[in-house]
Model the fold of this input.
Amino acid sequence: MHPSKTALSLFSLLFLTAVTSLSAQTRLNRTEKQLVQQVSVNHNQAIGFLEQVVNVNSGTLNLEGVREVGRMFEEQFQAIAFETIWEEMPSEMNRAGHLIAKIEGAKGKKLLLIGHLDTVFEKNSPFQVFEKINDSIAKAPGGNDMKGGDVMILYALKALREVGALDNADIQVVFTGDEESTGKPLSVSRKSLIDAAKRADVALGYETSTGFDYATVARRGASGWYVVAEGKRAHSSGVFSERTGAGAIFELSRILHQFYTDVRGEELLTFNPGLLMGGTLLDYDPKTSQATVFGKTNVVAQRAEVRGGLRFITEDQKERARTKMRAIVENGNLPQTSARIEFTDSYPAMPMTDGNLALLEQLNEVSLALNQGEVKAYDPGKRGAADISFVAAHVDGALGGLGSMGSGAHTPNETVNLNTFEALTQRTAVFIYRLLQEK
Done:
């Protein structure tokens, strides 16, 4: 045979083999088709359960509310033969605890599925009730972030159980009770989550999907910062004088301005002053995030404080920012003032890894098989911190942003998209099934 024809024939054979392999990956087998059907059978029940759990307030600081939502999920997991544990947190942490549900076996990948029970809407919030706007959209406090994702996990596993696909599987589900305001110390509040990751191969986070088109392979970490400025209390007629100086509020203003001009700029680095107070007497309650301030316009401010958050994509980036912030606080103080800064760690960054990208490709294959379109990596700069960041370093692969779709998270206009809920639960069920078939 002519050499060029031989090469062409070999290329055609390789191309045909690749296409055949890809088409096999993007087709549903018999069990997967049963899973899709079973999720559809259970869909109305899933939406009904979502409404029930949304209507129980579980703001992070409403400990009994968080526990009640945990009980509701606990019953449902027990009904599909999962062992459940409620892990209490020490009383001084002022956090309700975590729900852990698990089955143990030796089949396929060992999975860790992550959600959270708490919301940002505390008992005093006027936004409390699940309300259908139409057949596709419901207003729901915490419905998108993230009770919707919790219900998706539950009903995907329920479908897997009902078609007999969970036999000998090894799956841990951890629903934390303080994701929106993490209990301190982290060594206590995230110990069980990290321990679960250490015996898992794969971690999947179901907080707030960005749509059918994306999943999260990397996300920024989060930490807190706190600046206190002290000035000389005196009559305001003496402000700017050598004896009285500038006062605490001017000093804190200097610091914030320099943060904005000198620290801002690195890609994916952000820092936000979320609470600012200054005057003669200050009182701040960290349990409720509420402050009371007393001061007068004719008295130079004695004290000023600001509390904020810092977001970063790597630990190196976090440390660079902290170094710059410390230098600004410690140097160049205005007359008769002083200042100090403290940092608190919260969420580590979740860097992009080969394992994460491999999981994304598997999810993409599932999505194509379900005719739901291609799934791509989401911009980490557009995602907040999440519990999956604590475990990413301990597993072979991690993927986040797999939960329910919606809009307005953390606002009184938060919605959950009911029209896409069934399809995303089907994607979850088939994805988990395929991971359980791997050695």
Remarks:
- The longest helix spans residues 30-54.
- The two ends are 43 Å apart (CA to CA).
- The chain has a mean pLDDT of 93.
